[in-house]
Amino acid sequence: MEILRTAPNPWGQEVLVGVAWDLLWAALIAGFLFVVGHQLYLWIMAPKREKSPPAATEQVPERVERHSSASRTFHWLMAATMLTLLVTAFFPVVGVQFAWVTIHWIAGIVLTLLIIYHIIHATTKQDFWSVWIGRKELAQALGAVGKFFRRQPAKEERSGKYPLDQRAYHNAVTLVSVGVIVTGILMMFGVDTWFWASNPYFLSDSTWGLVFVLHGLCGVGLVTMVIAHIYFAIRPEKRWMTRSMIKGWITRDEYLEHYDPAMWQLASGSAGAEAGADTASADPDAVAPA
Fold first, then answer.
1. What pairing do the DSSP bridges indicate for beta strands 249-251 and 63-65?
2. Residue-range definition of the domain harbouring residue 215
3. How many Å separate Cα 31 from the centre of its chain?
4. Does the residue 25 lie in any domain?
């Protein structure tokens, strides 16, 4: 399997021009193996759930808002933009030819604006650090790995608003998205856009090669991540969470089953998603350094 593509420049030098498209198929296979592996894990080592204490029921409304309308709008716009980027990037590779370049860079600009909006919204309306992995989450992950290798059944403990697996996925997507945005903006200088004419000499051949490779690696990485995300969204035991991204709320029983009220404290007089505090995230010892 080839990993990188090279081509001669006008001076006869072999320079990088991007990743080999074998990696696209590798990303698809990795996504498939992840789905199969996770299903086998559930069959062999299904996690146990502990019941919530009934005493907390009276303090929780029948419906708990988990995602505000602003958060849900951002999520679905980003999903549509991400799928547009993946389709315009990889369909031509597999033989579906169409005028994809303009659609691709416009979708890239939309994604960039959405990410900027999300950073501002998370900073001003939410707890910015609530979805980042800190020392506490790393300790939980190491403990879970240890139990796995000792073949001990994993015990799913109630968590704050954002459990470890969601934080890990968010952190990975953030890293890859930043990579694809930065390299994508640089690549825009090499094509004609509404803002400027193409300038292939904006970067040196070797630097262009690195930009193309990083952009391609981030792109194929997103393929596997999207497969995993869709898989979890349609799993029967996760559909309540998918519903919350559509309607915004979870039920009282779902809140008490999956979340520790001491770690995700609902605002007094309101069950608003923006106001709810994830006290585990607010703990300085659980926050990753900036």
1. antiparallel
2. 4-48+60-282
3. 14
4. yes
| Domain count of the fold of the chain | 1
* Token pair recorded at residue 224: 């596997």
Residue 96 forms part of a structural domain: yes
Amino acid at 25: W
Tell me, yes or no, whether 254 lies in a domain: yes
Residue 54 lies in a domain: no
User: Distances in Å between the alpha carbon of 289 and those of 125, 134, 237?
Assistant: 21, 8, 33
Give the pLDDT of residue 12: 79
pTM of the model: 0.81
3-state secondary structure string, 108-163? Answer: HHHHHHHHHHHHHHHHHHCCHHHHCCCHHHHHHHHHHHHHHHCCCCCEECCECCCC
pLDDT digits (tens, 9 = 90+) for 227-245: 999 999 999 989 999 999 9
Question: In CATH, what number is assigned to the domain containing residue 178?
Answer: 1.20.950.20
CA 167, 215, 76, 237 torsion: positive or negative? negative
125, 39, 113: which is closest to 81 by C-alpha?
113
